[in-house]
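just leaving the lab so this will be short. what follows is a protein written twice so to speak, once as letters and once as structure tokens for the fold. can you read through it and tell me how you think this chain folds. thanks a lot i owe you, the record is right below.

___
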Amino acid sequence: MGTGVDRSLWPVVLLLLLPVLGLSEALREKWLPGDYSNNTADAQRFLSDYNSTAEEVLFYSVSASWNYNTNLTEHNSELQIQASLEEQAFTSAWGLKAKQVFTSNVLDSLPDPKEKTLMDKIMILGVANLPQKEREEYNTILSTMDNIYSTAKVHPRPNISWSLEPELTDIMANSRSYKRLLYAWEGWHNASGVPLREFYPRFVELSNQASRADGYSDTGDDWRSWYETENFEDVIEQLYKTIEPLYLQLHAFVRRQLYNQYGPKYINLKGPIPAHLLGNMWAQTWNNIYGMMIPFPDKPNIDVTDEMVKLGYNATHMFRVAEEFFTSLGLEKMPDEFWKGSMLEKPDGREVVCHASAWDFYNRKDFRIKQCTTVTMEQLSTVHHEMGHVQYYLQYKNQPVGFRRGANPGFHEAIGDVLSLSVSTPKHLHTIGLLDSVTSDHETDTNYLLKMALEKIAFLPFGYLIDQWRWNVFNGRTPPERYNADWWYLRTKYQGICPPTGRTEEQFDAGAKFHIPGNTPYIRYFVSFILQFQFHEKLCEVAKHTGPLHTCDIYRSTEAGAILKKVLQAGSSKSWPDVLQEALGTNKMNASSLMNYFDPIIKWLKEQNVNETLGWPDFNWVPPIPEGYPEDIDKKTDELEAKEFLEDYNRTAEGVWNAYTEASWAYNTDINEVNKQAMLAKNLEMSAHTLKYGQMARQYDTADFQDASVKRIIKKLSDIERAALPSAQLQEYNTLLSNMETKYSVAEVCRANGTCHPLDPDLQKIMAESRDYDELLFAWKGWRDAAGKVLRTDYKRYVELANEAATLNGHSDNGAFWRSLYETPTFEEDLESLWKELEPLYQNVHAYVRRGLYKKYGSKHINLKGPIPAHLLGNMWAQTWSGIMDLVMPYPDATQVDATPAMVAKNWNATVMFQESDRFFTSLGLLPMPQEFWDKSMLLKPSDGRQVVCHASAWDFYNRKDFRIKQCTVVTMDDLITVHHEMGHVQYFLQYKDQPVSFRDGANPGFHEAIGDVLALSVATPKHLQTIGLLDKVESNAESDINFLMSMALDKIAFLPFGYLMDQWRWKVFDGRIPSTEYNKEWWNLRMKYQGLCPPVARTEDDFDPGAKFHIPANVPYVRYFVSFIIQFQFHKALCDAAKHVGPLHTCDIYQSKEAGKLLGDVMKLGFSKPWPEAMTMITGQPKMTAQPLMQYFEPLIQWLEEENNKNNEILGWPDYDWTPQTVEVAVTGNKVDFLGMSVNDSAAVAGQWVLLVIGLALLVATITLAVKYRKSRKPEKSLSTMELKQKD
């Protein structure tokens, strides 16, 4: 708030900066009082001499103070202090002379009572009462405090500083970031307030000492005497009580709107409001948060700041506009000295006191304003306020110096503001060209009055309490040890605000307000806010205004100007009640005019606050400190803006993602260089889009957003994955992935006769159907030579780039990024716990299968205490073992659940298989496949010579209508299961297609995989296969059940350790625990540890066996499948319960259950919009992953396996973990053999085998010795998979 400089406070307002040591207070001889006699004539001569001398002294002192305030230097400080000391010496010399010479009888005999009043003022010495040493100390303290306040800065970062003006003021006015506002508020209160605390108690002592010398009990009593009202404290208390109900209504309304913005965490609807959220550093006016409060946003904006900028307003023009207002009333224009001498803008290159103030130089012609003006509507009001002070100076300039002030201190402040009440009206803003039109209706008026209330009514308790606090400090009721506590008690009591952080007596928050270190009494502003409405009502009356008081504009009313002139010209030569009586017809202050002005908004607020708590019964409530504070203060926190950003992202992402998906589809269904380059180009476009919007998303701090969906999407977008890489590395990364996938997809294994076999269907068929050990070995090794080895170099570089991208996204490595997708801090521990729960079941399956393979291949190839050779389990990766069901079928004579023969017999083809799957989904009440699916999917491997990626996959084209599957389907029961799995993905796509793009995903990656599989659990049942005509009858007997469960176990249980270890390996590769020199060794260590498998031939680091699995070169995380294999049984049980299934869980078929379908559909509709535990709870009734439903499903098999394995004395596990099958790979080439990469003759090869055997025995002895030593050693070792395996056994 601007201020006129009051001469009664001149020493306090103007004494600045440095300690005064050795400066003399000697007064110049020409300024010393002469000789006077104790008579009336000499008393009058004394007053005349005093007046002319005072003008000279004050001009000198004000000039020195002006020079310092507009250029804060040490030199100017010294000059200012010297001038202030001389002014005090003048005050002291003339005051003492008057006291010494003139008796009360002579003073009472003065013919004009005003002369006695002037003499009384002269004899009030104030600080001049102090002895020189104390006076210098007092001046030094004031200058030090003013310097601390004026130069205080907040440092958000090194080499960055925020001053109060303009940076901190702008933040408090315009930021809506809770953290940024908190940082600005706390920073300023600490930077400006804390250093003042040590000086203020001594200042209070000296100030009281000076006041007591003038006959007052303390400085507060001194200040109140200026109002010439004995019961002044009672008067203002009564005034406050009158307006308090209006303030409570405004407070409740504002608190509710802030609650809508910041939420219940930071706003208590029954408590005080955090002090930093109200648009102003001191929460003294709240008009800067009008944008959050505006009752009717569609009505015209009455903040004309933008229009001022548009019209080219600058500081000078704003002051010209204000001047024209005054002259339109018949008042004075600004003199030339005003325009030449004023500081209207903050200068570059020097420190200044920016606080707006008006200056009287006491020579009756030089009047100035000092203001760091910015072009805003608020500052336009401040300009009128400050010019109101100058107009006051101009009008009373011919009064004696002692009467050149307001009738009371509040008058000076009211004059500028009474003009602002007109200036801020829509009518006036329209008149001066800042508002296009004036709309007069209830909604527009409500908007206007609320904005005025945020400025005027919000201020009143603050204007009242500041001096309540100081009066208590001066009279001792608030001692130094309670400065801050009592400050905040009053602020909560009157304003209903609280500090946003913990404040202690180490802080001095009162000092963060200019008027405390500047020692400017503040109750004047409270008084002025009452008086201005009294004046406004009277001036509007004489200006012949009709209509509501808040619409009045006295612009160009000379009648109003005449009343103002009469008030201004009197200065303080008359008592303020007399001035008020002459101008208004009453000699009392009252708030009725203010209440009249705000009457419409009072009524409106009461309507809005029907259910609100008025006041703050939770008096002691304080908000919590925000998470991440103060690191995130530069981020955006406007939730509405964030929603608009996300709408833009969603709209553009659909187009960009669709284009990439189309290009990727074209490449995956026709592998050639042209399609590859087109895909890479679209990938770069998608990455650029991801990068652009990801970087924008990172600008938001969502910690305090109310909409959980917005927070969730922003978080997801902020992780921009590969797009974080610099463009060259991004291109390299994309090319690496494309090359690896291409090498994998085109790999073939060729025989000596030139016949070559692709993975699908040839090699897959061999692995599933052949029982020839060497033929299986040919396919197994050949595929790894063709598809794995060639990827090793690429993969090493891929790891480096993937880790770099992850690091740029704030993750420690790429594995940490993948795990973050599960939003579970204990994810790794949870998985290990699940595995430990399932491990006994797996070991029973493993032991049983190993026995079956032993029967087939004999002891040469199977060790009943060792791992199983990885190529014998019916699958290229030994991930599922259903291909060898014929070798391990518990009851060969019982019904076999294999629908393949029936499918072939019934002439099923790929389309029929997908149609059957579609019928399953629609039978549940779920969505049918759209026509685009049937028109555009690739359901068979093309026969036109195209190379394709055969790996089955489902595709969402992000246009909410195009969904496809790519699968080289063959007519088998296994592929029928895969069809349902992939259709499950598409059903998920269909269900969440109307979610924002960022939510078009599974609740976690495992959910997507589980949805298809949970249907397959029904599809695979004999009951269902019979229902759809693929099984003649359902045999319900133990043997058939065990056969069925065994086939399921070979698919589900056998898979679990593989699903777990794939990403165990990658996580360790990413975090460096597995170096590139040990890729293959550690791969096989993990496969040994978890699966109990060994390679059928020796593997070295020349091999890269992980790369022979699609998901490694394709960069697809794999633990999702482990998760899906757990949760699909949780889903299955929940759906079976919904379908009211009775009987063992493994016999359940949810086909045609609309209840189960609804439960499933509701979860799928969520997509990724909720954390997965919420989705899990929706379907299962509890939020955690658990293996219990899986164990329940396989319970009959578990019992049977335990009995069977006990009967056969099977060893669970593989204690002979280092066993390998007795195979030496020999490739015959003429009379030479290839032995370990060397071409040698037969005898040499045989000898070599014996050498290897001896070496092997030696190594075994060495290993045992090392193991003994290891166990004796207490020194911890770095644990890798092999070490863990040894420790386990």
In short: The chain has a mean pLDDT of 90. The first strand starts at residue 3 and ends at 4. Residues 232-262 form the longest helix (31 residues). The chain is about 55% helix and 5% strand.
